[in-house]
Amino acid sequence: MAALMRPAILLSLIISLILPCLAQNCLNDTFSNNRLYTLCSSLGRLNATLHWTYHPSNGTADIAYSAPQESSGFVAWAINPSSSGMIGANAILAFYDSTAAVTAITYEFSNYTPSVRDSNLSFRVYSREAEYSDGKYTIYATVALPGNRTTLNTVWQAGQVSGGVPVGHALSGDNIKSMGSTDFLTGESSGS
Ligand SMILES: *[C@@H]1O[C@H](CO)[C@@H](O)[C@H](O)[C@H]1NC(C)=O
Ligand SMILES: *[C@@H]1O[C@H](CO)[C@@H](O)[C@H](O)[C@H]1NC(C)=O
Ligand SMILES: *[C@@H]1O[C@H](CO)[C@@H](O)[C@H](O)[C@H]1NC(C)=O
Ligand SMILES: *[C@@H]1O[C@H](CO)[C@@H](O)[C@H](O)[C@H]1NC(C)=O
Ligand SMILES: *[C@@H]1O[C@H](CO)[C@@H](O)[C@H](O)[C@H]1NC(C)=O
């Protein structure tokens, strides 16, 4: 009996690992410098996708967050270690700064009227960069998953830039639903 079940369990494990990618349209995505990631998830809101490689040995994840946006706007992807939604979100934001260079900055949101500026997050960010092409921003980063957890609340956003800094976003539609839990081990992403 046990011997008969084992292949089935193995198969369903394999399916559960692969299905999140097959079921979505992120599998064929490619990235600059031949960056490759082991898992991906279509986030379901703002047409965003997240690709990543999780390293259990040190609890870090290499991520690539990609979303369409006008070049005059910003995109952001965040982990919220303590809550969900914007307050507590530890974000990486990509946009064209005042020198007309694509930049990736980090900022932790503690209120709804923030002055966004590059500052430290509550967890370590080993690297971050951004690019803009084909009507999309892509953020590349390596982060320490807070508390070495592998299931985390995430939130992502797209909005307006003024004077070279992100200043706000729409308060309706996808922009208030773009959050969910990301399982960095399986690639499953649940959300609204
Ligand atoms: C991915 O690429 C393969 C091979 O080119 C193609 O058959 C398939 O339709 C593509 N899938 C998506 C979701 O674009
Ligand atoms: C997402 O993609 C759909 C279909 O291509 C498009 O109609 C919609 O405007 C896009 N939304 C955003 C926020 O880019
Ligand atoms: C982080 O978690 C992984 C997976 O649960 C574990 O293998 C690893 O030892 C942990 N690393 C640290 C630094 O705690
Ligand atoms: C984490 O571990 C992976 C695989 O062992 C390694 O490639 C990567 O450089 C490490 N990252 C950091 C930030 O130490
Ligand atoms: C940000 O973190 C770095 C490295 O952990 C530290 O050297 C630096 O002082 C911190 N900056 C602020 C503003 O806290």
From TrEMBL:
Its main location: membrane. It holds the Pfam family DUF568. Residues 1-23 form the signal peptide. GO terms for cellular component: membrane. InterPro entries: AIR12_DOMON, DOMON_domain. It is found in: Membrane. Keywords: Membrane, Signal, Transport. It comes from the Eukaryota. Residues 46-159 form the DOMON domain. PANTHER family: CYTOCHROME B561 AND DOMON DOMAIN-CONTAINING PROTEIN (PTHR23130). This is Cytochrome b561 and DOMON domain-containing protein At5g47530. It comes from Elaeis guineensis var. tenera. The lineage of its organism: Eukaryota, Viridiplantae, Streptophyta, Embryophyta, Tracheophyta.
